[in-house]
Write a structure and sequence with these properties.
Strand content: 15-25%
Radius of gyration: 17 Å
Number of helices: 10
Number of domains: 1
CATH class: Alpha Beta
Largest sheet: 5 strands, parallel
Mean pLDDT: 94
CATH topology: Rossmann fold
Low-confidence stretches: none
Bound molecules: cytidine-5'-diphosphate
Strand order of the largest sheet: 2-6-1-7-8
CATH superfamily: P-loop containing nucleotide triphosphate hydrolases
CATH architecture: 3-Layer(aba) Sandwich
Distance between the termini: 17 Å
Structural class: alpha/beta
């Protein structure tokens, strides 16, 4: 199977919209591979913070991104031989990721790595530009969103569950800043892809969101 006929489901959306959880569950239900593209930006950010690379040094950051030695094994994410799955979820790392994601050379360095996830029997990819830039031929494109308040509460629960301290007020401010950065950057800004299904999950459970995405995919399969 060549990558061009591998079915891709692209799930994009703003920070803390729950797209990661939904995308992962959809991939499990379909037996597809899963790409958490945000993790690649977070891994680059973590490397930069550890190396003391300035977050405005585009050339050095692009080199770091191009040389990322990472692997995804079930719930673990390895940077070299260290499992950093929890470390990359820290707000400091997320903020740095959001900053370096505005840099064209960094984005460019991560393209090949992302395309490498596209293998049979299929891929569910989550991020900001999966349906617009990385996988424009995705068979299904979903723009998954939720109100800022619902997202701040979800992020709060996620961080507290991982043992990080946080307040909903700070998180709300943080995510509004991140939304603005994602939507206003010149390269690959966050916006629904053409033909994307918009899914507002503010009042939905994860199971309901997963069922909706699977129903859309089943409809597409029936037609093709
Ligand atoms: O968890 P959250 O949704 O905040 O972030 P993430 O999906 O883990 O991604 C971390 C950061 O990388 C985001 O703040 C985005 O700015 C950036 N990103 C991106 O620019 N393009 C992607 N395809 C994925 C993430």
């Amino acid at each position: 199977m060549t990558s061009s006929n591998v079915p891709v489901i692209a799930i994009d959306g703003p920070t803390a919209s729950g797209k990661g959880t939904v995308a992962q569950r959809v991939s499990e239900r379909l037996g597809f591979h899963y790409l958490d593209s945000g993790a690649l930006y977070r891994l680059t950010a973590l490397s930069a913070l550890r190396h003391g690379t300035p977050l405005h040094d585009e050339h050095a950051l692009a080199k770091l991104a191009a040389g990322l030695n990472c692997s995804f094994v079930s719930d673990s994410i390895y940077l070299a031989h260290e499992d950093v799955a929890d470390a990359i979820r820290a707000e400091e790392v997320g903020n740095a990721a959001s900053r370096i994601a505005t840099l064209p050379q960094v984005r460019h360095s991560l393209v090949g790595l992302q395309l490498g996830f596209c293998k049979g029997p299929g891929l569910v990819a989550d991020g900001r530009d999966m349906g617009t830039v990385i996988f424009p031929n995705a068979v299904l494109k979903v723009f998954l969103t939720a109100s800022p308040e619902a997202r701040a509460e979800r992020r709060y629960k996620q961080l507290i569950g991982k043992g990080f301290s946080a307040t909903i007020r700070d998180l709300l401010k943080d995510l509004q800043e991140r939304d603005a950065r994602d939507a206003n950057r010149s390269v690959s800004p966050l916006k629904p892809a053409e033909g994307a299904h918009i899914l507002d999950t503010s009042d939905m459970t994860v199971d309901q969101a997963v069922s909706q995405v699977l129903a859309w995919y089943a409809e597409i399969r029936k037609r093709t």
